[in-house]
Write a sequence for this structure.
């Protein structure tokens, strides 16, 4: 691969990004109440966990509602495994790294291979889009033994 | 910095101009595929071509010569699994699509439980790098065909004694009943056992409301038309809209599968009239706005305190945290199966389960879907209990409640108590 081509591709992507983002944001994002916080009851940062464990989720200052239910001051949980949150004005993707708890669940059983993994919680509104400002936990690291 | 800016701008402009021409080929070339060792081998564990499999099966993957790493982690000679169901190989020079036919195991999973419909299916494994792009050369298993038996279910149905029967008590075909009435079920020649308890010639009731018989060789569905009585209940308080309705009883075994032969009642027709038109032993109660019966809950639902635990000493103002297993939380007023909202009962006996939970200082409603509550209590011993309510604040059937715990509130909090 030639270097100019790579640079051009990179710049093309960079140039296209803001345009893409602007085109896809139609509805304004839901406001998050001040002091809202999502956090892990279990596991905690740095903990050693078995391969199969239950992630328990706490939420302060807001309520839980299933996906599709547009109520003020509510959202549903997303568990991000070994991944970073995407752009906050886009719906959270749905794949094996971004686990949606769209039925309003407040805990989820995950099975992970041995080793180091990161977990992060991110609240999404009825359209799976993070709030403004995003309500997310710190990114924690667990060691699956 | 200042001198760089125009250069960057120029590059940007050039890129935009070049975009329609350059992007496609450049991106394809930009995604250089990760190399894979020649010896790498991917296969299914214990699953051979042309195997007969149950509809729900656990598929295990074995990779040799490479490592499993979660998606997003670029590592040499590593990748994560993808299971291709009923589909050809995707293009190998771009990310594997993510849909029902291409299942990603980006967490680094090495097994998966999948459900297949009866018939023939193809399965193939494909390994891919951190960007979901297959390696070069691609590491994949052979494409195998499995067959899910159409006729034979996973296991034989439980047998029922020849004379076993179920019937409605004091409710005949064509009867007229009030909008809210108690329906009683009887059984003969079969033992009532709760769901989950396997016993010969045992089972539990299911009430089919306004619906045909379900398939008899599989689990009875659980929804508003198929009410489960997994605790072995023999009656239900049912709310029906005025008009004509049909009711039928069907016994299910410990796994909610009808027996062989099925034990069921006749499908009876009832006419429901508005309350007051019929003299009734059970007076109508102010409850659901048009729902039928109480909202059912899954049998494995559990509600518990994350904080505090039974017997603990807490501060006068403490945040009480709730945990809920196998159900979801929804604000009051939102009707969605398998959801409800929390109620915190402070120093109160559990209320009646067939009417809305009262709203007062002892029954704290968390109708906004909250999962924790900051509670202030006077010093002394107190009891706390959680009770889930449906969209109308009525407990589910069976009710989803936590154990009732006792906590001690110390004037100075738990630390003062310990220091003593």
């Amino acid at each position: 691969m030639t270097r100019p081509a790579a640079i051009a591709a990179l710049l093309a992507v960079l140039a296209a990004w803001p345009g893409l983002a602007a085109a896809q944001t139609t509805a304004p994002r839901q406001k998050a109440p001040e002091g809202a916080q999502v956090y892990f009851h279990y596991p905690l940062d740095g903990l050693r966990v078995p391969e199969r464990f239950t992630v328990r989720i706490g939420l302060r200052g807001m309520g839980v509602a299933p996906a599709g239910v547009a109520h003020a001051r509510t959202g549903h949980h997303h568990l991000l495994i070994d991944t970073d949150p995407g752009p906050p004005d886009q719906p959270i993707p749905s794949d094996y790294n971004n686990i949606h708890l769209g039925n309003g669940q407040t805990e989820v059983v995950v099975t992970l291979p041995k080793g180091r993994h990161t977990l992060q919680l991110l609240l999404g509104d009825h359209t799976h889009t993070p709030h403004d400002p995003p309500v997310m936990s710190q990114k924690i690291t667990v060691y699956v033994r | 910095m200042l001198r760089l800016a125009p250069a960057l701008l120029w590059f940007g402009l050039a890129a935009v101009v070049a975009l329609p021409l350059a992007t496609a080929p450049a991106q394809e070339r930009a995604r250089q595929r990760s190399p894979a060792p020649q010896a790498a081998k991917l296969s299914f564990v214990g699953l051979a071509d042309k195997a007969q499999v149950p509809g729900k099966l656990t598929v295990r993957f074995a990779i040799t010569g490479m490592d499993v790493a979660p998606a997003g982690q670029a590592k040499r000679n590593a990748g994560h699994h993808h299971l291709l169901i009923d589909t050809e190989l995707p293009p190998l020079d771009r990310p594997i699509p993510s849909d029902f036919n291409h299942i990603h195991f980006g967490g680094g999973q090495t097994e998966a439980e999948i459900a297949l419909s009866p018939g023939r299916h193809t399965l193939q494994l494909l390994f891919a790098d951190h960007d979901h792009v297959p390696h070069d050369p691609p590491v994949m298993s052979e494409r195998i065909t499995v067959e899910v038996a159409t006729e034979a279910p996973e296991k034989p149905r439980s047998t029922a004694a020849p004379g076993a029967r179920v019937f409605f008590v004091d409710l005949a075909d064509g009867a007229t009943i009030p909008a809210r009435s108690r329906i009683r079920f009887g059984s003969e020649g079969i033992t009532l056992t709760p769901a989950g308890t396997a016993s010969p010639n045992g089972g539990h009731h299911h009430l089919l409301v306004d619906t045909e018989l379900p398939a008899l060789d599989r689990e009875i569905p659980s929804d508003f038309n198929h009410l489960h009585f997994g605790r072995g209940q023999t009656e239900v308080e049912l709310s029906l809209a005025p008009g004509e309705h049909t009711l039928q009883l069907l016994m299910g075994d410990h796994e909610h599968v009808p027996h062989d032969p099925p034990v069921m009642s006749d499908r009876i027709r009832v006419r429901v009239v508005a309350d007051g038109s019929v003299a009734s032993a059970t007076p109508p109660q102010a409850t659901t706005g048009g729902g039928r019966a109480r909202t059912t809950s899954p049998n494995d639902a559990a509600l518990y305190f994350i904080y505090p635990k039974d017997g603990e000493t807490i501060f006068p103002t403490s945040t009480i945290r709730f945990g809920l297993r196998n159900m979801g939380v929804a604000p009051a007023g939102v009707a969605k199966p398998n959801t409800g909202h929390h109620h915190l009962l402070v120093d109160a006996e559990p209320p009646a389960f067939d009417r809305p939970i009262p709203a007062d200082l002892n029954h704290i409603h968390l109708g906004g879907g909250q999962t924790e509550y900051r509670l202030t209590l006077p010093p002394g011993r107190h009891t706390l209990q959680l009770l889930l309510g449906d969209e109308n604040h009525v407990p589910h059937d069976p009710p989803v409640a936590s154990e009732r715990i006792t906590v001690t509130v110390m004037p100075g909090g738990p630390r003062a108590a310990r220091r003593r």
Notes: DSSP finds two helices and 27 strands in chain B. Chain B touches chain A through 50 residues (CB under 8 Å).
